[in-house]
């Protein structure tokens, strides 16, 4: 089962910690909000991604298991 | 009443008698609402679909065979949505969505205003199929005639009814995003009418955390007729992949703008003909409202109104809003007005939408006025970059829609954008805006009793 990072854009307040801790997947736009590459994380990045999620002051960075998303 | 009778009311030259149409708009009253008695005399009683607990209602299979897809914009198969709610734990709630925040669309409020019982039949049938005990009917608070009609209709039904869910009318704020599923669920749960982060999606945890079906008014009206006449009947019109009929709101330079019922797959040309023909040369058609796609002038004549035909143009019919732009208007100034309005309609919850749509609107404004610093090509590239940057970065689809709208305008009217970026405002820039925005929607209504003139119907050729 693959994992990927995702941002809750409502919770995000552009602190920017995530881009420092996971630059392989996250860059910041000109207003400081994260631009996230949602490709599945390789094993080598999973710990870094967890650390970035834990560091987010607003808990806006999420690590999601691949969902067989049904859309309504 | 058929197309011809409607034509007496508004003398549009309706050449097509359109056999089998109108369905939803059959005998639509021009002045008031169709009473429950009149409605049942025309369409027959609401059929009873009995099913055992734990078993699926046979209505759902019928809707699946009919191939009904949602008419609120997303086009999701209705049967799959019903099943997703049915499969979730807890007692379901059904929400009838008549919020219709899209300024270029008037079809849902028209249905609610003139034919509320058809919509409410659909809501009740869906509720029964899901074992839901609550039906929340959400109408835009500024659509006062629709609010009144729904209130009257609910009273009429309450006095006659033996069965069915407890129905309640809820008025919702008149904003662009209020009709978005999660915003509606948020509002109905006591919160603001603003989108929420998903998942959970409404079908798993909606109003008060209960599984919630949010369905568009027109979708439920179709469901009410399929429940009576069957899937085969529904498929007698339309194309195999997009069966049935659809409501379209046509605005712009035609003799009779308004709400039309078309056979899915009808040509845009036949719709324009039914609306009395163009009153000016048409520069382009915006299909799918303000999250939609521009079709440039020379292509308009060849367009068919089905997603299959629109796919090569990267367009979908969405909620059926079609806006024509006349040659008297400046496409760059029009894009600037709508982009600014879309920026103001941001619910300001997500940074990329709050900042990005404002920057997008400002960039279009600067191009329109040639306040651009640097070369025209650079400014246009910057605009495209901004539009791409905001995409898929909000909790709802609002930034995506605004992005698509601007990119499509730049694509369809490329010479105009380049010309403005180089030389600034043109003569047409100072003319009053043509594309309908909320203030204009009010003007549009002012002349008539109905909020939208209901015109006729169009058959596929």
Give me some keywords for this one:
heterodimer; A: 72 residues; alpha+beta; Alpha-Beta Plaits; two-stranded antiparallel sheet; 2 helices; 4 strands; B: 461 residues; alpha/beta; Rossmann fold; Ubiquitin-like (UB roll); de novo design (two linked rop proteins); 3 domains; six-stranded mixed β-sheet; four-stranded parallel β-sheet; 19 helices; 10 strands; globular; disordered N terminus
Describe this structure in words.
The complex is a heterodimer of chains A (72) and B (461). Helix content of chain A is 25%, strand content 22%. Chain A is of the alpha+beta class and 72 residues long. Chain A has a two-stranded antiparallel ribbon. Chain A has a two-stranded antiparallel ribbon with strand order 2-3. Chain A has a single domain (3-65), classed as Alpha-Beta Plaits. Chain B is of the alpha/beta class. Chain B has a 6-stranded mixed beta sheet with strand order 8-7-9-5-6-10. Chain B has a 4-stranded parallel beta sheet with strand order 3-2-1-4, with helices on both faces. Chain B is globular, with a radius of gyration of 22 Å. Residues 1-17 and 440-453 of chain B have low confidence and may be disordered.
Concise summary:
The complex is a heterodimer of chains A (72) and B (461). Chain A is an alpha+beta fold and 72 residues long.
What topology emerges from the helices and strands here?
The complex is a heterodimer of chains A (72) and B (461).
Chain A: E1 3-7, H1 17-21, E2 26-28, E3 34-36, H2 43-55, E4 61-65
Antiparallel strand pairs in A: 1-4, 2-3
Chain B: H1 3-9, H2 36-43, H3 58-66, H4 78-87, E1 93-98, H5 107-114, H6 116-130, E2 134-140, H7 144-160, E3 166-172, H8 181-188, E4 212-216, H9 217-229, H10 231-234, E5 245-251, E6 258-263, H11 268-274, E7 282-287, E8 293-296, H12 297-300, H13 307-310, E9 321-326, H14 331-344, H15 351-368, H16 376-389, H17 398-412, H18 414-423, H19 438-446, E10 454-458
Parallel strand pairs in B: 1-2, 1-4, 2-3, 5-9, 6-10
Antiparallel strand pairs in B: 5-6, 7-8, 7-9
Helix pairs in contact in B: 3-4, 5-6, 5-7, 6-9, 14-15, 14-17, 15-16, 15-17, 16-17, 16-18
């Amino acid at each position: 089962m693959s994992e990927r990072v995702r941002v809750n854009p409502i919770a995000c307040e552009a602190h920017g910690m995530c881009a420092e801790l996971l630059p392989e997947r996250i860059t910041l736009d000109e207003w400081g909000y994260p631009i996230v590459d949602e490709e599945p994380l390789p094993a080598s990045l999973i710990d870094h991604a967890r650390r970035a999620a834990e560091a987010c002051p607003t808990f806006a960075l999420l690590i999601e298991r691949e969902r067989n998303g049904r859309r309504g | 009443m058929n197309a011809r009778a409607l034509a007496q009311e508004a003398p549009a030259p309706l050449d097509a008698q359109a056999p089998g149409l109108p369905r939803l708009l059959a005998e639509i009253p021009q002045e008031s609402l169709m009473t429950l008695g009149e409605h049942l005399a025309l369409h027959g009683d609401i059929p009873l679909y009995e099913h055992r607990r734990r078993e699926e209602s046979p209505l759902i299979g019928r809707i699946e065979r009919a191939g009904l897809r949602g008419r609120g914009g997303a086009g999701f198969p209705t049967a799959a949505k019903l099943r997703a709610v049915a499969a979730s734990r807890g007692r379901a709630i059904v929400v009838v969505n008549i919020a219709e925040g899209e300024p270029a669309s008037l079809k849902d409020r028209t249905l609610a205003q003139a034919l509320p019982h058809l919509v409410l039949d659909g809501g009740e049938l869906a509720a029964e199929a899901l074992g839901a005990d609550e039906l929340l009917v959400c109408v835009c608070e500024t659509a006062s005639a629709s609010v009144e009609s729904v209130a009257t209709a609910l009273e009429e039904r309450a006095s006659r009814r033996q069965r069915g869910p407890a129905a309640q009318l809820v008025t919702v704020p008149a904003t662009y995003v209020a009709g978005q599923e999660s915003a509606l669920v948020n509002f109905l749960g006591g919160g603001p009418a603003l989108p929420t982060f998903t998942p959970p999606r409404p079908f798993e945890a909606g109003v008060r955390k209960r599984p919630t079906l949010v369905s568009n008014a027109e979708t439920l009206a179709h469901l009410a007729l399929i429940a009576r006449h069957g899937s085969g009947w529904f498929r007698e019109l339309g194309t195999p992949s997009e069966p049935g009929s659809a409501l379209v709101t046509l605005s712009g330079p035609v003799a009779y703008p308004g709400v039309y019922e078309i056979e899915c797959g009808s040509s845009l040309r036949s719709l324009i003909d039914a609306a009395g023909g163009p009153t000016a040369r048409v520069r382009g058609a915006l299909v799918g409202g303000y999250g939609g796609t521009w079709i440039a002038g020379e292509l308009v004549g060849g367009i068919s109104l089905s997603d299959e035909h629109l796919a090569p143009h990267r367009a979908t019919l969405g909620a059926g809003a079609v806006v024509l732009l006349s040659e008297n208007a400046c496409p760059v100034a029009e894009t600037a007005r709508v982009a600014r309005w879309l920026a103001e309609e941001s619910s300001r919850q997500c940074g990329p939408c709050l900042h990005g749509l404002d920057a997008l609107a400002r960039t279009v404004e600067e191009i329109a006025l040639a306040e651009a610093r640097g070369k025209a090509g650079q400014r246009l590239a910057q605009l495209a970059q901004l539009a791409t940057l905001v995409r898929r970065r909000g909790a709802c689809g609002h930034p995506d829609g605004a992005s698509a709208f601007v990119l499509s305008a730049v694509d369809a009217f490329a010479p105009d954008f380049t010309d403005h970026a180089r030389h600034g405002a043109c003569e047409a820039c100072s003319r009053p805006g043509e594309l309908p925005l909320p203030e204009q929607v009010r003007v549009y209504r002012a002349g008539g009793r109905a909020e939208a003139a209901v015109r006729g119907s169009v058959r596929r050729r």
